[in-house]
Amino acid sequence: MKHLVNIYIIKIKENIMKRIALTLVSVLLCLSSFAQNRADSTVALFDDLSIPLVEKKYVANTNFQDNWYLSLYGGVTSNFGSDCSHSGFFRLMGPAAMLAVGKEITPISGVRFQINYNRNTGVTDNQFGQSLDDLGNVQDFSDLNHNRFKWNSYGLSIDYLLNFTNLICGFRENRKFHLQGIVGIGGSVSRNYTTGKFAEAQKIDNSHEKQLTNEDKYDNRQHSLICLRAGVAGTFMIARNWNLHLEAVGNILDNSYDSNPTTSNTWDGHVDYLVGISYRFNNKGGQAPGFYYPRHDLTEYRKRMTSIENIREQTRRRRAELEEMTDTIDVDAQVMYTLIAFDENDTAIDRLQQTNIYTTAYAWAKNQRCIIYITNSTAVDDKLFRKRAEAIRNILLERYEIPASKIWIMANEKDIKPIGDYIELIVND
Length: 429
Prior knowledge:
By secondary structure, the protein is α+β, with helices and mostly antiparallel strands.
């Protein structure tokens, strides 16, 4: 009994492990489907011709030059860092601008490169007090404590954009709104620490020796720092090639960004609030930007299959009519009928009709005494019929090397007076 119980427990564990494994495989397949930019398609075989059956959620493959865009942003930046709590939020703001070029890689991911400019605002700390000049006069700089000062920064960075809308709601072409997450890294150069009362502090000795003794903590020279970026963006589609963007992105830098590297805070930085507009360049071949469904979807496939079935029915009816017209057959002959269909006012032969021509050539190869008649059941002898007939004749001559004497073009099949076996290629509108 104990042995049976152990076996039962083992089976339960195996079932649990199988379910866990299936769950993990399902999750991985879902993630891989988002990662690829071309979905799988099933294939149906008809007369040895492969026809793709495309699902509605199929995302067409794109080229490297597809889905690029150019963006221009403007807005404000708000700084955080040393002693910024002593100033109001809006008093820490300054103008900001950004120019970006990017590419949508898949419906859920993209990348962009940008350069930006920020006019930053910092706050001085409590280091300023009274001091004596060379003549022994008292100089009072206490009014510089917790005063704002300005400087410029210039950045170059790269961002990765994750489209939450397509990730959660599924891909849909020409969606009017997208919510995106932003993460990035770059470099920032800060300089020109001037303006306001803080300019007076430039008179204080800023030598390396004074900085070591902490008598003047402000290092007003140019700083080159690494910048980490993260934020969110909302994108509104306003026209075929134009998008409107609203975004807020935080930038984190070393605490020397505001020229005061000796304060207790670890990081300085700024949050950019930007409004931008972007122009999306057309894809290869002049198509509108985006991820397209292929040209032949299930609707086109059903239409083609309906057309094929109609041709088959016309062929069956025509064979029945010819079987009743016994007086037009001079001798006991075997006859093969093939219908070739063309698009309206077109002379191009598609792959399906080429299969029918191959069938004719194959039948002739088995009985090379046959004459192949390219004819028209409607008895219309015009330029369009002649061009279509000559297109069929050229394939038989060049590809299948059937002698020209074995291929006749007859505008009216009723004029055919064959002797022996023959093949009819009926050109149908």
